[in-house]
Amino acid sequence: MKTNVIGNVPSNMPAKKLQNTWWTPAGLILLSAIPLIFGAIRINQLANGAEITPDNARFFASPSPVVIHIISSAIYALFGAFQFVSRLWKHGNSWHRWVGRLLVPFGLAVGLSGLWMTLFYDYPEGASKLLYGLRLFFGFGMVLSISLGFISIRRRDVNQHRAWMTRAYAIGMGAGTQVLTGIVGAIIFGKPNEFENALLMGAAWVINLAIAEWSIRKGQIRPTHTAEI
Asked: Phi and psi for 227 in degrees, rounded to 5?
């Protein structure tokens, strides 16, 4: 019996299975919601003025990097979430390719602006050197992952492309997971000191990358042998 196919999805696919394909982007968007809300508040403060304190003075002194970082992060997080819907990157659907071309420069903007702020903003007094090192390490890791992902797709190595882009997105979503690790840490340990806060933030990146590697190893990113960009 011949199965009709609409939009690369069999018309007889169970509705429940079809709905489940959207749980991943929904969860990723929800994870990024709180950092994006705080980012919007920060941009509003920079645009309309706010009390300048030792914690935010560096942003008012040089607002461009943080504005670029926030806007790029929003685009990268929201559009990137839908790259994990298999229906949108199957053969014949141009969504994945066109959005990917958008996400590469915005993802690099996220990583590079984060590195710029870490390297050149005045370092807050009493802040942990561990957090400084973690931000550099994962910032460089995100930029490197996006670069390797781009090189891989130019070589038509789709499996490596998806693996590296998944790692890059996992690092980019660190701010969302840091909200969760911060809440858990506060519940278990109370108000963390600077070193403990650095450990909690680092744990968020590690958790995201562990999930990304599990996803890659388990084959949730299905192998494909040819692609276009």
From this structure: -160, 165
Q: Is residue 138 part of a domain?
A: yes
Outline where 49-157 has alpha helix (H). Answer: 57-61, 63-81, 95-120, 129-154
Give which of 119, 174, 189 is closest to 141, Cα–Cα.
174
Q: How many domains does the chain have?
A: 1
Q: Which amino acid is at 178?
A: Q
Burial environment of residue 70 by CB neighbours within 10 A (0 to 12, 13 to 18, 19 or more): buried
Domain of residue 133 covers 30-217
In a domain, 23, yes or no: no
Whether 149 and 170 have beta carbons less than 8 Å apart is answered as: no
131-189 pLDDT, tens digit each: 999 999 999 999 999 999 999 999 999 899 999 999 999 999 999 999 999 999 999 88
- The dihedral of CA 114, 179, 162, 89: what is its sign? negative
In a domain, 120, yes or no: yes
CB atoms within 10 A of CB 13: 14
Tokens representing residue 33 in the block = 């919601």
Do residues 151 and 180 lie in contact, with contact meaning Cβ atoms separated by under 8 Å? no
Q: Is residue 170 part of a domain?
A: yes
DSSP 83: G
Residue with tokens 């590296």: 164
DSSP string over 35-66: HHHHHHHHHHHHHH-----TTTHHHHHSHHHH
116-133: pLDDT as tens digits: 999 999 887 778 899 999
CA atoms of 32 and 37, how far apart (whole Å): 9
DSSP 3-state assignment of 191? coil
